[in-house]
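FIELD: query
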Amino acid sequence: MSWSSGAGRVTLTVNGTPYSRWSEFSLTRDVGDIAGRFSVKYFDAARAAAGMPANPSSSPLPPAIGRRESCALALDGETVLTGWIDGMEGQWDGSSIATSISGRDKTGDLADCAASPTGPAEWRNVTLLQVAQQICAPFGIAVRAETAVGAPFTRLALNPHESALSLLEKAARQRAVLVVSDGVGGLVLTTGGRSAAPADIRVGFNVQRAGFRFDDTHRYSDVYVKGQSEKAAGARTEVAPSLSHASAATGSPAIPANAGTIEAAGIQMTGHAVDQEVTRYRPGVVLTRTQSGMSSVTQQAQWRVRVARGLSTTLSYTVLDWRAGTGNALWRPNTVARVFDPWAGIDELMLIRGVTYRMSAQGFMTDISVVGLTAFDRIDEATPKRPLKPVKGNA
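FIELD: result
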């Protein structure tokens, strides 16, 4: 088995014992995945010695890495992940023996485990930060906010089987907040692209390999968002008009003459946004999850156009090493980079969605996934308050 000459750059510490001799290594972090995940491949001397007692080692061996162990991963001495070992694989034949270990940072448990198995089933008058801290505390995960978390929830309920991540993302959507992991045992409430990447991404300069994917199947010329509204409630009669009598001309239920002016306004409101880049007729309709007024559904329509536009462009690049720029900093997800790619026709600021640090016989490289700046925009999806009724005597 070959070893990278710079294998000491990757140190995995398991229960206080550091390991730094690997034949292969990768670590991936992505804005769309709550937890970073890693894998290493190495020669497991302890297990090899246990499996071949007839050939004992003359030097002390580090203990074999066990299942479900806690671990910390460092690159060049900088801790980038603290979490748990999730999986192990071993293979041997007459000429080689190798073990692979995989794991995730602590926030991986939020995706797997129930949010509140013994209660409570709902929270009242608490902020997003308070709910996140209460959910994450039993997992040993600290929570911090890098952005405003909005007003307290009047009521936030969950399903008994709902995962911690599902609840947190549901609550975060209602406050226009993005939930991400910091990789080192913490959860961050933030927004997309709050910091700059360490360097530009320039095809023909620092890029070893490039690819692009344009997918416009989820983009529409016109986006209509329709939702329930109580805006006309004050204008309704106390008893809804009857629709049980059929029209003599059509045989269909008769619709009261004032339905369009009173009831229809109270039943449904529609927001509309146009994607100027989609020039052919492609309408799309989305139903909101909550009651909405006109401004809310219009904002949601505009938001859906922005997100679809951002996700329609995905660029992939491979650059040498894991660090770049004058500060020799790591490439990281949720950062903004200037992308210059004449092949894909791109010269603009874009969002780094994910990074994968790799080490193999080919050396040290970073795979970078890039999307449009608006791909992870968030909008407050909370139910707006009902509009105040006009005061009698005022116009």
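FIELD: remark
The chain is about 15% helix and 35% strand.
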